[in-house]
Design goal:
The structure is a single chain. The protein is α+β, with helices and mostly antiparallel strands and 155 residues long. The chain has one domain (25-154). The protein is 25% helix and 45% strand. Strand 2 and strand 3 (65-73) form a beta hairpin. It is globular and about 50 Å long. Mean pLDDT is 86; it is low at 4-22.
Length: 155
């Protein structure tokens, strides 16, 4: 019996963990409420089609958290836009906002959420070269962020 349990347990635990995770709709509602409140404070609106999210352990507790890249545009009626990274950690089974920061934007750099590995959020970037038009950054690069003491730090 012990041998069977040892063989079955590694396959059974991930299934139990899946059922313990909160409803994806609940996660989406928490993230949307957070972004909507920020957009209202900035007198702008989210460009929802640009929102990207990845799960991964960000606070080293072994529980999947959520990193969200989102864009707020039209602040105070301008044609500006800023790209933000927000991190939500799981506390008692629910997502809780932990930190957010600007990671890109118009005339700054364009960022694309790439992956989460070893508690590090990885991005692909495009920055502006000296002859690039205002709408087209061309220099490829990467950047990384970590959650440290409830703050996002660029490495």
């Amino acid at each position: 019996m012990k041998k069977v349990l040892v063989l079955v347990l590694p396959f059974l635990l991930p299934c139990i963990a899946v059922f313990a995770l909160p409803n994806n709709d609940e996660d989406t509602a928490i993230v949307s409420k957070f972004i909507s409140a920020q957009a209202a404070r900035e007198k702008g609106e989210e460009y929802e089609a640009a929102r990207k999210a990845l799960t991964g352990d960000l606070n080293r507790d072994g529980i999947p958290d959520l990193a969200v890249l989102y864009t707020i545009e039209g602040q105070d009626g301008t044609n500006n836009y800023l790209q933000y990274l927000a991190v939500f950690v799981r506390t008692k089974g629910k997502l809780v906002p932990a930190a957010h920061t600007v990671v890109g934007g118009k005339l700054n750099r364009d960022v694309t959420l790439d992956s989460i590995r070893n508690n590090v959020i990885r991005f692909k970037t495009l920055t502006y070269g000296p002859n690039d038009p205002a709408s087209t950054p061309s220099i490829k690069g990467t950047t990384r962020f970590v959650l440290a003491k409830r703050r996002l730090k660029e490495l």
